[in-house]
Amino acid sequence: MKRYLILVFSLLLSCEDDSNKELTLLETNGLIGSWKLVETYLDPGGGGIDWNTVDNGDIFKFDDDGKYRRTNTFENIFNSSGDYVFEEGLLELSYTNDGEEMEENFSVQMSEDTMVLSPAGPRFCIEACLYRYKRIN
Q1: Element holding 134 (H helix, E strand)
Q2: Residue 132: how many CB atoms within 10 A of its CB?
Q3: Contact of 107 with 123, CB cutoff 8 Å
Q4: Range list of H helices, the chain
Q5: What is the CATH number of domain 21-135?
Q6: Which of 30, 38, 77, 120 has an alpha carbon 20 to 30 Å from 19's alpha carbon atom?
């Protein structure tokens, strides 16, 4: 009987908790696809600012292999592509700009077809700044 209890206890200890892996996969799957910037909330100070519609907004495309591409459709001057990690509501982008390794982090709020990004480092906004994206596929 002791051997049986030891065996059962050993099996329980050896089990791995996959719930975090499943959550990360679920979060990442919600991000995969293309997203277009449709509104910004930029407060230069003093409040009273509302969401403003954006014409020709940036497009983010997130692939399931951890790669992303951002296309600036308005000015076509700040396009980037690289790697991303999306965990626990934080989106981390890594890319190269003129040979220099760059990183951008965003706090993310998501619903079915809407994603709101807020800078989370290394660059921040002094006042509120939010970017609302709509899923386009």
Answers
A1: strand 129-135
A2: 21
A3: no
A4: 2-14, 19-31
A5: 2.40.128.280
A6: 120
Per-residue model confidence (pLDDT) at position 48: 66
Q: How far is CA 85 from CA 32, 106, 114, in A?
A: 11, 11, 19
* Helix/strand/coil for 77: coil
Q: What is the mean pLDDT of each run of 10 residues along the chain (137 residues)?
A: 39 40 48 95 75 91 95 76 94 91 93 92 79 92
pTM: 0.73
Q: What is the pLDDT of residue 86?
A: 93
What residues have CB less than 8 Å from 122, skipping those under 6 apart? Answer: 103, 104, 105
The whole-number pLDDT of residue 17 equals 45
Distance between CA atoms of residues 33 and 64, nearest Å:
8
